[in-house]
Amino acid sequence: MTHILAIDQGTTSSRAILFDDKMAVGHIAQQEFRQIYPQSGWVEHDVEEIWDSVVAVCRDVVAKADDIAAIGITNQRETTIVWDRETGKPIHNAIVWQDRRTAAFCEELKAEGFEDTITAKTGLLADPYFSATKVRYILQAVEGAQEKAEAGKLAFGTVDSFLIWRMTGGKRHVTDATNAARTMLYDIREGRWSSTICDRFGIPMSMLPEVLDCAADFGTTDMFGPELPILGVAGDQQAATIGQACFEPGMLKSTYGTGCFALLNTGDELVTSQNRLLGTIAYQLDGKPTYALEGSIFIAGAVVQWLRDGLGIIAKAADTHPLAEKADPSVELYLVPAFTGLGAPYWDAEARGAIFGLTRNAGPEEFARAALESVGFQTRDLLEAMHADWSGGEEATLRVDGGMSASDWAMQFLSDIIGAPVDRPKVLETTALGAAWLAGMRAGVYPAQADFAATWALDRQFTPKMAEADKDRRYSGWKDAISRTRSTR
Predict the structure, then answer these.
(1) Are residues 278 and 231 in the same domain?
(2) Residue 235, pLDDT score
(3) Among 174, 200, 235, residue at a domain's last position
(4) What are phi and psi of 419, to 5 degrees?
(5) What is the dihedral of CA 398, 400, 406, 409, to 10 degrees?
(6) 361 and 475 fall within a common domain
(7) 379 and 230, same domain (yes or no)
């Protein structure tokens, strides 16, 4: 058995990828599913559409190989599913990580001082981004749900947990430490669910899954033919950290998908951020967590999707880059893509997107450039906060991955605006690779951690070319745009 099946269940699509015994990408299948927007700031998914898409892509890929050793799963984090244990059916649409409907409750938590308890135990902030307030909302919004939950009839899970439940025929209700760490219910210091937080939110602990290492025995499935073990699970950003081989303290990666997420490995030290970053688990192996500082940007690749679907100025994402190259350098637009609020380091749930610097000469080219630049500016926001919190990351080269990292234009601007090298690996499928390595390592197909890290290979390094004065001026303009966009200043 030499192949590993990686399931990459993302925010806008589900993918299945076959990796061979050399960890090279083989067959890939992908299927998009609907984004549901009930009202401004609300984002949902139909859980059955997620499930159907995963089944379809897995069956497509499995048909291409008969020597699969194991399955690894990586998933959109924080997206929340509550289902009936007896029927296996969700009781509400999945509430997506981008959703902001619980902002008012988060303000209540802050006003009563409970955010300090949340941060001390979970490393997180009281924000709608995380799963806990979404679970509470579902229990209150669905008639009879609270009573059923208290009777032990309902289960909660992030997407990985629901997929495993279905794939194992309801035999396993489990998750891994990285997904648990993003729920706002898991004490990452003690390594267990927090009864204090669950009680405050009215969430019965009977709803919660068992928490395992990232490489563990999550169960087996016969849905795709012969019985296959599920041996690796990690939330998408942690899986990308693993896929980028960021195993040493001070190593730093940033993934550019729907959002942008930068993780800085802090080793055994759980750093309490003074700049509204998140303390989290980077990965957990052999019962031992490795911690990280994380900065989360809600809108990265999604801003390109908006250019395509919202404004209609591009037909496909790749059109953005040639447009940006043609932009008039004298027109400096600043696009703040706060479509569902601002993430780190601002955490402003009520902020909304805005464009500054419009002139009569501004057109599709300038909008395209501003969209790509917004990702670089937001990344600098994160890195400056990280460097202020933890000196171990000050000299780090940034390793990048995700769809937008394929753009030379965007990566060069990123290097320019952060004033540091940006390394793009040969394998851009780092999220799926991380999940595949966890499962393959557990199955004995792939090498141990140090040997895996030695396989990381550079495709291209981008180095700063922008003049220091221009860099400072452009970033100052961005900070001004942010200050004008925020709901509270």
Answers:
(1) no
(2) 95
(3) 235
(4) 65, 35
(5) -30
(6) yes
(7) no
Model confidence over 361-401: pLDDT tens digits?
888 899 999 999 999 999 999 988 888 888 765 566 799 98
Q: What is d(CA 168, CA 43) in angstroms, rounded to the nearest whole number?
A: 28
Q: Say if CB 433 and CB 427 are below 8 A apart.
A: yes
- The rounded mean pLDDT for the chain is 91
By CB atoms closer than 10 A (0-12, 13-18, 19+), residue 409 is middle
Dist. CA 12–CA 32, nearest whole Å: 6
Phi-psi domain of 191 (left: phi exceeds 0; alpha: psi -120 through 50; beta: other): left
Residues 332 and 467 in one domain: yes
Domain total in the chain: 2
318 lies in some domain: yes
Helix axes 468-485, 364-389, angle to 10 degrees: 90
Q: CA 181, 389, 424: angle at the middle one, nearest 5?
A: 75
Q: Is the residue at 306 inside a domain?
A: yes
Same domain, 112 and 65: yes
Q: How many CB atoms lie within 10 A of CB 140?
A: 12
Among 206-220, 279-293, 326-340, the range scoring the smallest mean pLDDT is 326-340
The residue type at 302: A
The per-residue pLDDT for 118 is 95
Pair 186, 313 in one domain: no
Mean per-residue pLDDT for 120-138?
94
> Which pLDDT belongs to residue 474?
93
CA-based max dimension of the chain:
64
Are 29 and 160 found together in one domain?
A: yes
Is 450 inside a domain boundary?
no
**Whole-model pTM above 0.90?**
no
Residue 110, pLDDT score: 94
